[in-house]
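On clarity, I found the account of how folds are encoded harder to follow than it need be. For illustration, here is how one protein appears when written out as sequence plus structure tokens:

:::
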Amino acid sequence: MSDIHAHQGLPGLRQQDAQPVAKGPLTLRGLLRRPWVIRLLAVGVLLFIWQWVTWANTRVPGIDELVGFMITEISGGSHGGTLTGEFWEPLSLSLTRYAVGLAIGIPAGVLLGLIIGASRWARGLFNDTVLVLLALPAVVWAFLASLWFGLSSQGPILAVILTAIPFMAVNLSAGVRNIDPGLVKMSRSFGVPAGRRLYHLLLGGTLPSGFTGLRLAFMTGWNSLLIVEWFGSTSGVGWRARFWYDALRYPGFVAWIFLFVILITLLDRLLLSPLERRAFQWNQQPTLTFEEEL
């Protein structure tokens, strides 16, 4: 009976807990602790420093120059003489190459990482090769892709693939090795089906390492694409930045570089961060139980 009364008393307690709590006036300290205020202040400080540098050195383009230049590029207006703005075609080409490279490189890196992490024989065969690929800078892929494919779209795509594979493989193999062997033995002892072991143990155990590799693959893949387009392409975001650099139009060069930074930042904030939060929320839930088998 005491349990029944205890359960009957819970709704009343929950209703009291659900009552809104009166909040005091918002203070300056409380306002400064909010994340969006901190980000806004950080952006303001960076813009102030940038504007101060433009005052100290006239060769550094100002914010207004960059904005005006990109408006001309987006609208297709005239930059003087026969030079006209181009924006959508270089951007779409770069994004297409980037997407194709990641679509090939990430699954290949995941598969290679799982094989290396699960097999000692595969680890001895491929681990050093993957580490060498990981150590090579993007500029090396730029020159090699230019030599192999010339001024074509295959070079930038290959650079993204070869950048994504080692990051995914190294992090996934480390995640597989970090799975507690005791959990694997216990799941086998209780007769947990192989599909559930694969889904809960392998996916859950490699999720943190996998997202680390995924974020690095996205970031460094975009960086490699820009460098390859700079040195070995006649189209794309990197080529457009190189075009204005060679033309000594530094506002155009800096504007396209900032576009590069803005795009990868938006990709991280709008796609990777929400996906990572959802995945880690799933990972914190208890998923592997033995009640059904018992």
